Amino acid sequence: MYDKIARFYDLTHANLTADIPFILQLAADSDGSVLELGCGSGRLLLPLAQAGFQVTGVDSSAGMLARAKARLVEVETAVQQRVTLVEADMTSLTMPSENRFGLILIPYNTFMHLDTVQALLALRQARSYLAENGRLFIDLPNPLDIASISDDQLLSLENVLTDPESGELIVHLVSNQLDSANQTLHITWIYDVSQPSGGAINRTVAQAIYHYRYPHQIELLLQESGFKLAHLLGNYDQSLYNEESERLLILAT
């Protein structure tokens, strides 16, 4: 799915930077290198490497990894040498057995792409690569916010963007279908692209199923995977999670 929308990802997430200082501090407080599961186009991976950390980025989308590689080409060689990119599914990741990481990240909303079976597989894989005294970090939205999303399935305007490289106008639309019984959110993203000179509109449609979980459900998944829940935070300011929190941030050991 992300191969279809890789070119739009950085544009639609350009303002997503609030988590970066928090992630950098997590890495600084951890002993060893960083493994990012679902690294995408390198939004977090690059600032981690620029801050001096050895980072392995894993993603199943060749299109997103291509954008990460393009970003790396633009930085100094020393930063490039701190990064390893792996095209793989996090549920079946295979790396040398001696690879151990002080911090493993499943970044912004990525864990929501996994159903229960996939989530357990991914967590068990992560546990096998965690160093002694290492930590796992999962970044999710507050599930109460997801559960309260309007189920009208109407298209709404997400944003209107201009591609700085091509000058194309991109109209980004979204539609949500909530299945509260199965705790899933079915999302349709539409990207309508038009040339600066006008003419026909080129439409790209992508769909995803997000699985949202409550804290007690995540804790059970962690326990079944060999982790122990350490902290539940509600935002990048390290405030504790509550019903009004913007995010659900999980730290486990």
From TrEMBL:
The entry lists its GO molecular-function terms as: transferase activity
Transmembrane regions: none
The UniProt keywords, alphabetically, are: Transferase
UniProt feature coiled coil, ranges: none
Q: Which InterPro entries match?
A: Methyltransf_25 (IPR041698), SAM-dependent_MTases_sf (IPR029063)
Q: Does the keyword Nucleotidyltransferase apply?
A: no
Instruction: Report domain Methyltransferase positions.
Output: 34-134
Q: What is this protein called?
A: Methyltransferase domain-containing protein
